[in-house]
Amino acid sequence: MPVVAMPDGAQVSFPDNMPSSAIRDLISQKFPEVGQAFAKQRLAEGLRAGQNGDDATYRAAAFRTNQGVPAAGATDAAIQGATLGFGDEISAAARAPIDMVKRGESFSEAYNHNLAAERDRLAKYQQENPKTALAAQAAGGLVVPVGE
Predict the structure, then answer these.
(1) Burial category of 77 from C-beta neighbours within 10 Å (exposed 0-12, middle 13-18, buried 19 and up)
(2) φ and ψ of 86, to 5 deg
(3) How far is CA 31 from CA 62, 76, 98, 114, in A?
């Protein structure tokens, strides 16, 4: 039986056949601050592997994201078109210095977290509103001057 030291110093035994993810979930329920640390670690590992986090992971990790703001969806799609697809990168870079201070991260970490959140949010909007997203992105692209 694996014995795990809890954050309060108690030693707890778990069954041999219990998956480590189940142990982690139980500890997270009992000690929410540990749950946030696990979520931050999972998100950081996912970002390093090129994966975007889901809404629950961002909330658990206490990262400020714009997830679930449908009114901003069409505007964001138009900005993506007007910036030739760089709107998410621009937004992530603009917010990174603020998040560096708020979360104590390096610029690169804050930028990557914000970029993943922006891309998740845009992808969610595009899945839920494919025609509106395409129209907004195309309209935004018309704003870009194309020569003389």
Answers:
(1) buried
(2) -100, 10
(3) 15, 37, 28, 26
Tokens of 72: 């901003």
One-letter identity of residue 90: I
Whether 126 and 137 have beta carbons less than 8 Å apart is answered as no
Those residues with Cβ within 8 angstroms of residue 74's Cβ, 6 or more apart along the chain or in another chain: 125, 129, 132, 133, 136
- pTM over 0.90? The answer is no
- Strands 3-5, 11-13: pairing is antiparallel
Q: Which letter does DSSP use for residue 54 in this model?
A: P
Helix (H, G, I), strand (E, B) or coil at 12: strand
Helix ranges (H only) for the chain are 20-30, 32-48, 55-60, 73-82, 87-103, 107-128, 130-142
Report pLDDT digits (tens) over 20-50.
878 877 887 887 777 667 766 776 666 656 5
Distance separating alpha carbons of residues 3 and 8, to the nearest angstrom: 14
Reported as half-sphere exposure (CB side, CA atoms, 13 A), residue 131 has a value of 0
- Which two structure tokens, joined as six digits, stand for 66? 């714009």
Amino acid symbol at 143? V
Handedness of CA 25, 30, 34, 40 (dihedral sign): positive
